[in-house]
Amino acid sequence: MTSDMCRQRLFNLQQKGRSAMQKEPQTVFIEYLNKKGLNITPQRRAIVETFLETEGHFTAEQLAEYVRKRVPEIGMSTVYRTLKLLIDSGVADCLDLGENVSMYEHAYGHNHHDHLVCTQCGKRVEFVCDALERRQEVLAANNGYTLTRHRVVLYGICSECQEKGIPTA
Ligand SMILES: [Zn+2]
Ligand SMILES: [Zn+2]
Ligand SMILES: [Zn+2]
């Protein structure tokens, strides 16, 4: 029996469009920094620009590698601090892959989606489940919360890894 309660919509990473009439993500980030009394240093700017040019999911180390093509002396701590600010401003989102591995992606101006992650090979599937989305709103409201954001990650073994017979335990 196939339960299709959750209609899955797979998103092509390239097709995630930004709707018109929205602020540029750079503007959102700079406004956030101003509110916090922080400056946009040249290093921070290079990280933010590189982040916004990079589609899909990537680790902080990968991002640092791309940034170093422009600013060779950039340090990991600056990258981590800037990513934290990008997340806090709502421009970026972070995906916990377990075992201390996190990946980052664009959030602002992109369609919301949640993730399925293969714990063997790291393969990721993006999905939107309308029923799950609604259920979370109800759950939050029942507890007196207005939901502002959420992150759902389902961990499992992808079909290719199952075929390879990797033990699922
Ligand atoms: Zn969701
Ligand atoms: Zn896999
Ligand atoms: Zn994603």
Structure, explained:
By secondary structure, the chain is of the alpha+beta class. It is built from 6 helices and 5 strands; from the N terminus they run ααααββββαβα. The protein has a 3-stranded mixed β-sheet, with no helix packed on it. Helix 3 packs across helix 4. The protein binds zinc ion (3 copies).
Bound molecules: zinc ion
Helix content: 25-40%
What is the assigned CATH homologous superfamily of the largest domain? Answer: Winged helix-like DNA-binding domain superfamily/Winged helix DNA-binding domain
The top-level CATH class of the largest domain is: Mainly Alpha
Give the total of beta strands.
5
| C-alpha Rg (nearest Å) | 18 Å
The CA-CA distance between the termini, in Å, is 24 Å
Largest sheet: 3 strands, mixed
Q: From the helix content, strand content and strand pairing, which structural class follows?
A: alpha+beta
CATH architecture title of the largest domain: Orthogonal Bundle
Question: Notable features of this structure?
Answer:
single chain, 169 residues, alpha+beta, Arc Repressor Mutant, subunit A, Dna Ligase, domain 1, three-stranded mixed beta sheet, two-stranded antiparallel ribbon, 6 helices, 14% strand, flat, disordered N terminus, binds zinc ion
